[in-house]
Specification:
Helix content is 49%, strand content 16%. The protein has 233 residues and is α/β, with parallel strands linked by helices. It has one domain: Aldolase class I (TIM Barrel). An eight-stranded parallel β-barrel has the order 1-2-3-4-5-6-7-8, surrounded by eight helices. The mean pLDDT is 92.
């Protein structure tokens, strides 16, 4: 059981409003967690400075801003993110946006991954939004476009990971949120699986938030998930 390799696969989502609370959680988790995600909630509450702090002490940071704008804005935004030393950043998987992101990260170590379809969406949400196809169809189409454009990986539900891997290959990243250990609440996610199921389906990295951050014992919760990932590697 390679726990070190498993820890590299776990990304803890710091979906917290308070910087002080986030720092306290990071201190508590210690060496058990090496990779953190910062999104809108914490990012706009001072999380970008926290990202720099985490990078300075050797942690990896996934900046999940899901950029989608005119090409120049995305390109320059990604370039600025790359200069921070961030490991991963997200854009929405629209072709123009992805092309701009690839240009923006050129010459850096930043990996840009594209969000195909949000994991809170199902086919009913697609109908409401005016899409004519299904979630799975759009995920497959956007994954193929991302591969052709040169994106480093895909964000998708673990239920789509196997199909996405067939499209983009085994050398690309597949990052999956909506991960819930057996017996935990689904919360607002609709397409969820357990950590072991996700790894076996082809996911390279798992994003886990509330099952760790809201746990009575976050360290124990993280250790349990790391052990489950290790068992599936």
């Amino acid at each position: 059981m390679n726990l070190s390799a498993a820890r590299e696969r776990l990304i803890v989502a710091l979906d917290i409003s308070s910087i002080d609370e986030a720092r306290a959680l990071v201190r508590k988790l210690g060496d058990e967690v090496v990779f953190y995600k910062i999104g809108y909630q914490l990012g706009y509450a001072g999380g970008f400075e926290l990202a720099r702090e985490l990078i300075a002490v050797g942690k990896k940071v996934f900046l999940d801003l899901k950029l989608h704008d005119i090409g120049n804005t995305v390109e320059e935004g990604i370039r600025s993110i790359a200069q921070m030393g961030v490991t991963l950043a997200t854009v929405h998987a629209y072709p123009q946006t992805m092309r701009a992101a690839v240009k923006g990260k050129a010459g850096s170590n930043l990996k840009v991954i594209a969000v195909t379809v949000l994991t809170s969406y199902d086919n009913n949400d697609f109908i409401e939004a005016g899409y004519s196809g299904t979630v799975s169809e759009l995920v497959a189409k956007r994954a193929a476009q991302a591969k052709d454009i040169g994106i480093d990986g895909i964000v998708c539900a673990a239920t789509e990971a196997g199909r996405v891997q067939e499209i983009i290959g085994t050398d690309k990243l597949i990052v999956t949120p909506g991960i819930r250990p057996a017996g935990s609440s689904a919360d607002d996610q609709k397409r969820i699986v357990t950590p072991a199921m996700a790894i076996r389906s082809g996911s390279t990295h798992l994003v886990v938030g509330r099952p760790i951050t809201a746990a009575a014992d976050p360290v124990a919760a993280a250790k349990e998930i790391v052990a489950e990932i290790a068992s599936a590697l």
